[in-house]
Amino acid sequence: MKIGILSRRPSLYSTAALRTAGEARGHDMHVIDYLRCYMNIASHSPSVMYGGKSLEGFDAIIPRIGASRTFYGTAVVRQFEVMGVYPVNESQAITRSRDKLRCLQLLSRKGIGLPVTGFAHSTKDIEGLVNIAGGAPLVIKLLEGTQGIGVVLAETRKAAESVIEAFRGLDANILVQEFIAEAGGNDIRCFVVNDKVVASMIRKAAPGEFRSNLHRGGTAEKIRITPEERSTAVRSAKAMGLRVAGVDLLRSNHGPVVMEVNSSPGLEGIETASGVDVAAKIIEFIELEAKPGKTRDTVKG
Description:
Elements: E1 2-6, H1 13-24, E2 28-32, E3 37-40, E4 47-50, E5 53-54, E6 60-63, H2 70-82, E7 86-87, H3 91-98, H4 100-109, E8 117-118, H5 126-132, E9 138-142, E10 151-154, H6 157-169, E11 174-178, E12 186-193, E13 196-204, E14 219-222, H7 227-240, E15 244-252, E16 255-262, H8 268-274, H9 278-289
Parallel strand pairs: 1-2, 1-6, 6-7
Antiparallel strand pairs: 3-4, 4-5, 8-11, 9-10, 9-11, 12-13, 12-15, 13-14, 15-16
């Protein structure tokens, strides 16, 4: 098969791992910088151009779209879809999961466990917003934040009101969520491929930190998840319409709650912690599922 990896740099761990896994199974792998792609949007012969040449003959693409490049990256994925190329994750599903508010609303509609979450526009409603989340301590998140950036733990009501007012003064969209103290600064990443959890790890926050992101000094190790956690992860990926996803969970007193569903989850941390060749699992999935023009995104919303 001819498989394209939409990624900014071939040297990135996840990109290199996918390329190696594909080549090991005899596939023709190509790394494509999606920001250098340009598109011919025509009714009869739509195409994606790269380096002055038309990208043709691809059986599948693996989108590795950075959060800050979602708009253009998903436009490129969508153009491949128009051309009948099979996407591991479809453009609509990627866009859906990147919108944190929309993601939580869809998960809520499916009855999936979530931390109590509030969202508002006006600074006049700060007191009510804080009350929704159960008061302090609470977590305040920028909707556009990634890798723990733009996430603040407000330990008092006054601090929460000040942070919310400051963010809104910058016209930033924010969420406020209850602080799950019993999680102890740990979260669980479940890696879902084709409606199955193929690997999982627990990430532990660095001392003095409440965010467990590996980019922020957290550590990771293999973990055996419960059937309820496994089911929650799979249902969350399906709710987004994602075939490949990283689902982040917290263990709360009332069961697993979902913090985020990631459409381009990194492979290095999960492969190192779990010992599972996740890249190979993704390639095997493509071999099984990739058909010209095949899509399955039936999620509404």
